[in-house]
Each structure stands twice: as structure tokens, then as C-alpha cells.
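From the methods appendix. Each design record in this collection lists the discretized structure first, followed by the designed amino acid sequence. Records were kept in a plain field format so they could be parsed without special tools. The example shown here is representative of the layout used throughout.

RECORD:
C-ALPHA CELLS (144 positions):
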């Protein structure tokens, strides 16, 4: 972000002062909303955040979230996530976009210009049987 604070709104009638929300708080709101969508396995984190989780330390709710502003000051969100094997990726992505936009609007009065979803991987559930033999890279001659 170019600016380290985001104003929630203009000064409201009859009120003095301003309400300021840090980008970190916005990223947490966005991260929690996105990760609660059915079909999302997890958000992509950094090596450090993943190690902290493996060690049983605090879960970072802002992982996989990149918040920026365009030249007009509009908010743009990029989300990096893993989805569960077998889900409809477009449906999960659209549900993530809707959930994030709604939660940000409800909690901050901000409208997001863009919510871009980057699916970086797919994770099978432990009981999911992956297809075998259907997707051979060998030609018929090579198999024989």
C-alpha cells in the first residue's frame, strides 16, 4: 500500500474526527472471510507463517491476502488460496469474491473495486480417491 492508513469514510454529519482502519485490519477481515468459504482448503502463506502454524503458534489470518490501491484510491484485493479436490473452482472463486466484498462492506463501509482470486493449488481430502491410470502421459506404443 502506498498509504499506511485507510479512511473508512468522509466526516459524517454531526461527528468530529475521522475513523481510520489500518491495512492490516482490512487484510485480516478479508482473510477470515475468504478462508470460511466452503471448498477453500487454506490460504497461501509465507514459509515463516506456515512454520509458526506447524509449531502450534497463532494462525495468521492475513496470509494469502494482498491489498493495494489503484491511482484513484480504489481498493484492490488479490487472494492466494488452495482449494479442495473435487470442487468447482469457478464456483468457489465466485463465492470467495462475494463473501469478501460483503464482509468488507458490512464491517468497514468500504467498497472493493476488484477481488482477484489466484488458485495456487488443489488439496485432496484424506478419504478422497484420486483417479489412477486415466491420465497416462505415455502413448499406446510406449505402454506396450
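DESIGN:
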Amino acid at each position: 500500500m502506498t498509504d499506511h492508513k485507510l479512511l473508512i469514510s468522509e466526516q459524517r454529519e454531526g461527528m468530529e474526527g475521522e475513523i481510520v482502519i489500518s491495512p492490516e485490519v482490512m487484510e485480516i477481515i478479508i482473510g477470515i472471510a475468504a478462508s470460511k468459504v466452503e471448498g477453500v482448503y487454506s490460504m497461501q502463506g509465507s514459509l515463516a507463517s506456515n512454520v509458526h502454524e506447524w509449531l502450534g503458534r497463532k494462525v495468521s489470518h492475513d496470509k494469502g491476502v494482498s491489498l493495494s490501491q489503484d491511482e484513484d484510491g480504489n481498493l484492490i484485493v488479490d487472494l492466494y488460496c488452495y482449494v479442495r479436490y473435487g470442487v468447482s473452482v469457478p464456483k468457489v472463486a465466485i463465492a470467495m469474491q462475494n463473501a469478501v466484498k460483503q464482509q468488507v462492506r458490512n464491517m468497514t463501509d468500504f467498497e472493493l473495486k476488484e477481488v482477484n482470486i489466484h488458485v495456487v493449488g488443489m488439496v485432496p481430502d484424506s478419504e478422497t480417491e484420486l483417479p489412477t491410470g486415466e491420465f497416462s502421459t505415455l502413448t499406446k506404443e510406449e505402454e506396450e
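APPENDIX NOTE: Residues 89-108 form the longest helix (20 residues).
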